[in-house]
From TrEMBL:
Residues 108-198, 264-344 form a coiled coil. Belongs to the intermediate filament family. GO terms for biological process: intermediate filament organization; keratinization. This is IF rod domain-containing protein. Residues 454-470 have a biased composition (Low complexity). GO terms for cellular component: extracellular space; keratin filament. Residues 440-470 are annotated as: Disordered.
Length: 470
């Protein structure tokens, strides 16, 4: 398995014999596979924690079932002993007419009364549940109505905002028109003044015989001022009206949004309370159903037990013995399943502990300034030899795992190699585990059987690289 920001590779080979030592292979030419330069995605499955949690829950459930089954078996054994004692007492005693039928009938009648009471209570709880479901539906409808109202208000707010933007654009256009008209008025005023000055100059050079003033005075300044005042008044009025309308609509929308939000929070609170109440009632109903089922089972068992005791006690004892035998067989089967699950759990715990140690070593190496670690594990064998080796080299931040083949004589090898900026990590293991193969990403590890012990040495050297393990 290799991954990271660089290149890393590892290869290992192992030889084992009866004496417990490894041999060396001949040196061959080193070649590089260009496909190994591509980065490899070694992301861990995000569902691994869910799977582990599910396995733990299954183990807990099986443990609980096993404990309850053991209790049931013990109870049946006690009942068997009680029945054997009663049978021996009945055989020792003289044959007398007992009133056991009346006792069983009274017991059965009592259980039936309890069952009827539980049935009535169940009907009452079912009625309450239906009422609560109706309330929940009403609140759901109210909640949906509030959501629809809120959406409508938000749409109205968007439309109002668009209208306000349009009014503002109209105001800007009107202001631009006012400015253009003002410029035009100033231009006309300048033209009028120029023409007036020209006419006055012409009048000074002309002798007038009869002076008549038939022209009406035209006060352009007052007209321009009046027009300007009118346009300014219209613009100010439009601006004030638009601002007042926008402010009013904005306040109305804020008020309605606040009310809708408060109603929504209240509705959510009520829905949560009703959900809790429904859950509580459902739990109570399930509990009552369980009690009813238990009582029905007890009634059936009591009737069967009474009939068998009245008719033939020996037949009942044989039935109980058969049931006990079946229970023991079922218990043995469950014990075997439990042992298999424990074996799987033990293997998973060993694997988790191994990877935890690797991660802790890598974290301590990174915490110590990015130092690379070299792990070497040697094996000494008493009965059969085994060995494995791995080596890796490369550049960048990389990590590689390669498994070396196990030697003869019952030996096996497991190798890990990693390289980072010239630093390498290699390890070899041989253990007395059963042969197996497991794959993580693109890496492969092999376990071989053999009676051998392992020793581990760790050597750290400083490096600036960092490696992450997912």
């Amino acid at each position: 398995m290799s991954g990271g920001g660089g290149y890393g590779g590892g290869a290992g080979s192992g030889f084992g014999g009866g004496g417990g030592f490894g041999g060396c292979a001949s040196i061959t030419a080193v070649t590089c596979n260009t496909q190994l330069l591509a980065p490899v995605n070694i992301a861990i499955d995000p569902n691994i924690s869910t799977v582990r949690t599910h396995e733990k829950e299954q183990i807990k459930t099986l443990n609980n079932r096993f404990a309850s089954f053991i209790d049931k078996v013990r109870f049946l054994e006690q009942q068997n002993k009680v029945l054997e004692t009663k049978w021996s007492l009945l055989q020792d005693q003289t044959t007398t007419r007992s009133n056991i039928d009346a006792m069983f009938e009274a017991y059965i009648a009592n259980l039936r009364r309890q069952l009827d009471g539980l049935g009535n209570e169940k009907m009452k709880l079912e009625g309450e549940l239906r009422n609560m479901q109706g309330l929940v539906e009403d609140f759901k409808n109210k909640y949906e109505d509030e959501i629809n109202k809120r959406a409508c208000v938000e749409n109205e707010f968007v439309l109002l905002k668009k209208d306000v933007d349009g009014a503002y654009m109209n105001k800007v256009e009107l202001e631009a028109k006012v400015d253009s008209l003002q410029d035009e008025i100033n231009f006309l005023r300048a033209v009028f003044e120029a023409e007036l000055n020209e006419l006055q100059g012409q009048i000074k050079d002309t002798s007038v015989i009869v002076e008549m003033n038939n022209s009406r005075s035209l006060d352009m300044d007052s007209i321009v001022a009046e027009v300007k005042a009118q346009y300014e008044e219209i613009a100010n009025k439009s601006k004030q009206d638009a601002e007042c309308w926008y402010q009013q609509k904005y306040e109305e929308i804020q008020c309605s949004a606040g009310n809708a939000g408060e109603d929504l929070r209240n509705t959510k609170t009520e829905i949560a309370e009703l959900n809790r109440m429904i859950s509580r009632l459902q739990n109570e109903i399930e509990s009552v159903k369980g009690q009813r089922v238990n009582l029905e089972a007890q009634i059936a068992e009591a009737e069967e037990r009474g009939e068998i005791a009245v008719k033939d006690a020996k037949a009942r004892i044989r039935d109980l013995e058969d049931a006990l035998q079946r229970a023991k067989q079922d218990m043995a089967r469950q014990v075997r399943e439990y042992q298999e699950l424990m074996n799987v759990k033990l293997a998973l715990d060993i694997e988790i502990a191994t990877y935890r140690k690797l991660l802790e070593g890598e974290e301590s190496r990174v915490a110590g300034g990015g130092a690379s670690a070299t792990i070497h594990i040697q094996s000494s064998s008493s009965g059969g030899g085994g060995g494995g080796g791995g080596g890796g080299g490369g550049y960048g931040s990389s990590y590689g795992i390669s498994g070396g083949g196990g030697g003869g004589g019952g030996g096996g090898g497991y190798g890990i190699s990693s390289s980072s900026y010239g630093g390498g990590v290699s390890s070899g293991m041989s253990s007395g585990m059963s042969s197996g193969m497991s794959a993580y990403g693109g890496g492969r590890s092999s376990y071989g059987g053999g009676s051998s012990g392992g020793s581990m040495t760790m050597k750290s050297s400083s490096s600036s690289s960092r490696q992450s393990y997912r």
